[in-house]
């Protein structure tokens, strides 16, 4: 695939912050759109010239887990991040299991819809997965923790699923303003105990049925435990930066709090989410607030790490 | 209420093992059947002479949580174990919120169905809750960890909900034999890594969709993580004897493993489960393998702690 659009993910910032220069170069990036340049002999559904989007995990599309819609647990696939020789922040990528992985786009590569279609590779699918795994319906109150791209698209997803109240917890005004545009009914800038108190005030004292945790840190998890309603669910899509966490009597068990979520099977949602983008009903691509070429990628990482930009689109 | 039948719970063994004699006497017991002797002025649906069963938590039956079927999170109720002045291993109990809490039994106090009806107070409702919270259906494979009364009744519940495979993990032959009678298709006596390996062999390598954890210890939780299928759910009903546990990328997140369960709203299931007991279709009371009077209660605790008996029925 020749990459025509790609981007930097919030999860790319974890290795960006922790990798040492002495580890040598690493191919990065797991969200990309591009044009098929050449196909392997087993590829049946794609041909040179097709414009396609790649989810952040590749998958065969035929195993038990793919058929159940859990493509991120495909028995033959894995995450791009686990493949040291491939990455989407590049001129070109070799895509394994192309038939199962890639999704054709019915537009031209220079379409104005490209930023929104690019979100199908990860952040929109991930936000949507958070809402689906949390069981959001029109009878649900939702808290979204985190005003990054995934959190904001979780707000949009909860709105699409009809949530009656969506409380966005985030401190960056430009981001939470976009969250309101996507459907947040309330914004809480406070964190920790004060933030928990504020969400409880907004929700009749009991917290919300669904809490989407779109950060991945321990304070975000603790905040989720603090604002979830008895019998409710914490749906996690931020990659956990911890292994052990409180789940005993006091935190989850006492009030039948459930835990859900994980890596989103973005491939499972692509066809479902695409029509609303194509007909202009939603514009998830608004999460991109900067664009760069490949040479500008290092600065793009730095700007995202410094919270100067929300999400950087790359045009190789 | 004059208590006509009560029993010792597996969870009574936790304080039994940890309480110090210097703490003084404690009223124990949260599973009981009895006859209404006197009613408070607000009681509307019960009268002197009614035979009733009490769930292990009392609840008003009218708050938001009770109406949602989550009686254990009732805003006015709590667990009997939290009420120092009341307990069911006694001649009599004062029952708060009687209308919301107590369930009338359409039999006489000397009915042969009494052991089975007594399980509605806790162990049957808890086993059933584990299966319901885990989402057991006729397309589900289930592992049940623990061959105590709750584990065995979780087997019966999974069978009632149509599970296609039920693997019971337990080491006590007389108990696992009852498990087979209740519907277990496979029994695994091995524990730890060996037990996990054995369950995976029995389930096509991937583990089961639902894992019911009916013990509450860390090794049981780790076993649950080991045998749950990607996208599956660990349903906990054993009171956790830990607060922190692994829930990060490696344990739950990577494969979208969900966590469910908590204290069973036994009150919510009483009417649903009673008919099959009354018409003899099921006999959950088989978990009682010993009977004593009040004087024999201390020996009953000791026998259960020593695993000499599975569950002791008390006739005050």
TrEMBL record, chains A, B:
<comment type="similarity">
    <text>Belongs to the zinc-containing alcohol dehydrogenase family.</text>
</comment>
<dbReference type="InterPro" id="IPR036291">
    <property type="entry name" value="NAD(P)-bd_dom_sf"/>
</dbReference>
<dbReference type="InterPro" id="IPR013149">
    <property type="entry name" value="ADH-like_C"/>
</dbReference>
<protein>
    <submittedName>
        <fullName>Zinc-dependent alcohol dehydrogenase family protein</fullName>
    </submittedName>
</protein>
<keyword id="KW-0862">Zinc</keyword>
<dbReference type="Pfam" id="PF08240">
    <property type="entry name" value="ADH_N"/>
</dbReference>
<dbReference type="InterPro" id="IPR011032">
    <property type="entry name" value="GroES-like_sf"/>
</dbReference>
<keyword id="KW-0479">Metal-binding</keyword>
<dbReference type="InterPro" id="IPR013154">
    <property type="entry name" value="ADH-like_N"/>
</dbReference>
<dbReference type="InterPro" id="IPR002328">
    <property type="entry name" value="ADH_Zn_CS"/>
</dbReference>
<keyword id="KW-0560">Oxidoreductase</keyword>
<dbReference type="Pfam" id="PF00107">
    <property type="entry name" value="ADH_zinc_N"/>
</dbReference>
<feature type="domain" description="Alcohol dehydrogenase-like C-terminal">
    <location>
        <begin position="149"/>
        <end position="266"/>
    </location>
</feature>
<feature type="domain" description="Alcohol dehydrogenase-like N-terminal">
    <location>
        <begin position="2"/>
        <end position="106"/>
    </location>
</feature>
